Amino acid sequence: MPLDQNRAETQQEDRTDVQVFHSACPHDCPSTCALEVERLDPETIGRVRGASANSYTAGVICAKVARYAERVHHPDRLKKPLRRIGAKGEGREAFEEISWDEALDTVAEKLRSAVAKFGPETVWPYYYAGTMGLVQRDGINRLRHAMGYSRQHSTFCSTLADAGWLAGAGSKKGVDAREMAESDLIVIWGCNPVSTQVNVMTHASRARKNRGAKIVVVDPYVTETAKQADIHLMPNPGTDGALACAVMHVLFRDGHADRAYLEKYTAGHAELEVHLGAKTPEWAEEITGIPAAEIEAFAALYGQTNRSYLRLGFGFTRSRNGAVQMFSASCLPAVTGAWQYPGGGALYSNSGIYGIDKTIIEGLDRVDQQTRILDQSRIGPILTGDPRDLGDGPPVTAMFVQNTNPMNVAPDLGKVREGFSREDLFVCVHEQFLTETAQMADIVLPATTFLEHDDMYVAGGHTHLQVTKAVIAPVGEARPNHWVLGELARRLGAEHPGFDMSEWELMDDALQRSGYADAQSVWEGHWDDRVEGFDDAHFLNGFGHADGKFHFMPDWSKIGGNHAGMPTLPDHDTVIDGRDDAHPFRLVTAPSRNYLNTSFTETATSQKREGRPEAQIHPEVCKEMGLETGDQVRIGNGQGSVVVHVRPTEGLRRGTVIVESVWPNKAFIEGIGINLLVSAEAGKPNGGAVFHDTAVWLQTA
Ligand SMILES: Nc1nc2c(c(=O)[nH]1)N[C@H]1C(S)=C(S)[C@@H](COP(=O)(O)OP(=O)(O)OC[C@H]3O[C@@H](n4cnc5c(=O)[nH]c(N)nc54)[C@H](O)[C@@H]3O)O[C@H]1N2
Ligand SMILES: Nc1nc2c(c(=O)[nH]1)N[C@H]1C(S)=C(S)[C@@H](COP(=O)(O)OP(=O)(O)OC[C@H]3O[C@@H](n4cnc5c(=O)[nH]c(N)nc54)[C@H](O)[C@@H]3O)O[C@H]1N2
Ligand code: SF4
Ligand SMILES: [Mo]
């Protein structure tokens, strides 16, 4: 069992000569695990375990972080600043080592000269969540705002999911994940927690063990999570809106709608009931591919179970209709009134409960609303000069990148590569490893890991705030993001009090503004659990909208400008990249278990466990195409084509193809990765990358 494997890897016989330090996992994962880190000496860590005293982590972490020593002490860690002397993208040989002063002076001088030519908006400080620490991740915005550089709409991950959840519920919170232990039915919808947030399985397993709870998984393929489910519903990608509507049709039809709850807590339920009249399981079968009888059976189970818990993930929102998909699924507990019961309701994310004031961390007091905003996911079109993004503003001619690897993870990878190859583009990348993005840089700066700097963390999957201190000395000459930003600010003349504060002072400031204890107190207690009381977490004191109701008829215009044509009620929104004769398959690029985005693609154990990029294809399709295990297949669409090895698998529908991600480009047979095929089109209504929404053709390669 996967869980046992994880548990085994986090247990080791006690050693008496090592010290154990509290920490928190900084990676971009909803679990934000509380950690215990062995320190063998002031420069070396040993094993990493999940904190058993933390009631969410409960002693369980994923295998890749349990062996974090392999990543921190990896021989390929960047230890010195580098200057490129060879061609872009040519690897380590194309760089020479330089001093920090020389590197920082060069970056400052390049940014200044770009601004002199094109104005401050020509500089794009580009970042994402390689670390989730509030100081080290978000501090880059202080430099941005102080200098008037281009702003960023960060859309890789949660924009579509947020839009869909907020449409109905109105605030980004839900029922505590630990309450799953009190549920009788847990629906894991559009997420794959065995791979992507292992602790969900800890709490779901408790419910199964203690109460005989049923676990349902909704996913287009048989994931490791689906293998553990009692029921697996397997929709065509991008069709969950239809599934949700058909389930609600049955709930109303068979008397499982809680009329008193609907009246008291929801708006638009009369319109909803009329609207659902035609949304039968047979209608949904046509769209989702799930047999109507399976939809009926699931709806009956859901309708008859008060303590039903929806764990809604990101996966099913990475689609042009992703917000509508999330919104439609989130309507279910508002129809049955499951929110009223212990272990009942839903959770997408609890990150909205913390309310941490990041004014100084991010320099929010210096935001100029006139400064343009660039969409992170449209980096390809932007760097290749798309007028839809640049308007009459300047081209991007200088970038400073922290905590992200867009040369692998961003959509429309062909354009990303073309953009980074521009000779007139200056790029500085601050990284732990010489990623494929760093290889396109002119200056590369070595970054510390979370074990080498101080920071604080909130979570989406749980409700603890955690404060951490460096456990070991920086590896080589690696420096924290905060230090680098301060050095650049000094050289650029950026003025803001935040640059003169330490990480610790920034944390104290933010915590004090937000009504928390000081950083030292939180650190001493390891975490501060901000869990809300039952009535608040279950929205029994009202949902997040001004009228306190759950909205079945959302006002999409309040969430984003690109709302024209969005359905007014939960529905199947057909804006997806649908199949046609030329593109008969739908591609899903779900995350792989031993990588975390592209982090850990550098560690030997993860590489060994993952093997190589593979296309999971239905055996009948393989047979028709004459493809066998290990053959090569070309997958393509209008943006290009990618060649990978084939893995025939029963665990998906004929029309679905899965390529787990995110691999470096060099792992693919022709040297370009799967995101070549993913569109940079922004999801509705507020943007968001559409990683799992791609119609493709297959050819024998
Ligand atoms: N095909 C496909 N593509 C996807 C996805 C998918 O499912 N399929 N998922 C998408 C999603 S959800 C996301 S969030 C993105 C994420 O994509 P990325 O943002 O690229 O993800 P990470 O691998 O988490 O982190 C990037 C880098 O941050 C660096 N880093 C970590 N900590 C620090 C630090 O303290 N300082 C500095 N300077 N660097 C640091 C790491 O070394 C790592 O190389 O990928 C997206 N791309
Ligand atoms: N091991 C590992 N853990 C990770 C990551 C990783 O790369 N590897 N990435 C981290 C990050 S940045 C994030 S945001 C989270 C994301 O974690 P999740 O919330 O789990 O989201 P995804 O991993 O994008 O997708 C989860 C599942 O959604 C399914 N899916 C795709 N399209 C649809 C659809 O239309 N309908 C339905 N019902 N399901 C669909 C996919 O097949 C996949 O199994 O995980 C984090 N944890
Ligand atoms: S990657 Fe996720 S599951 Fe693994 S230790 Fe970090 S927070 Fe926990
Ligand atoms: Mo993400």
What is this structure's SSE topology?
Blueprint: H1 2-10, E1 19-24, E2 34-41, E3 44-50, H2 63-66, H3 69-72, E4 82-84, E5 95-97, H4 100-118, E6 123-127, H5 134-138, H6 140-147, E7 151-153, H7 159-169, E8 185-189, H8 193-196, H9 199-211, E9 214-218, H10 224-227, E10 231-233, H11 240-253, H12 259-265, E11 266-267, H13 269-276, H14 281-288, H15 292-304, E12 308-312, H16 322-330, H17 332-336, E13 345-347, H18 359-362, E14 373-375, H19 379-383, H20 387-390, E15 398-402, H21 406-409, H22 413-420, E16 426-431, E17 443-446, E18 455-457, E19 464-468, H23 481-492, H24 503-513, H25 519-525, E20 527-529, H26 534-537, E21 550-551, E22 585-588, H27 604-610, E23 614-617, H28 619-625, E24 632-637, E25 640-648, E26 656-659, E27 694-700
Parallel strand pairs: 6-15, 7-14, 8-9, 8-12, 9-10, 11-21, 12-13, 15-16, 16-17, 22-26, 23-25
Antiparallel strand pairs: 1-2, 2-3, 4-5, 4-17, 18-19, 19-20, 22-27, 23-26, 24-25, 24-27
Helix pairs in contact: 4-23, 7-16, 11-14, 11-15, 11-16, 14-15
One ligand MGD binds next to strand 16.
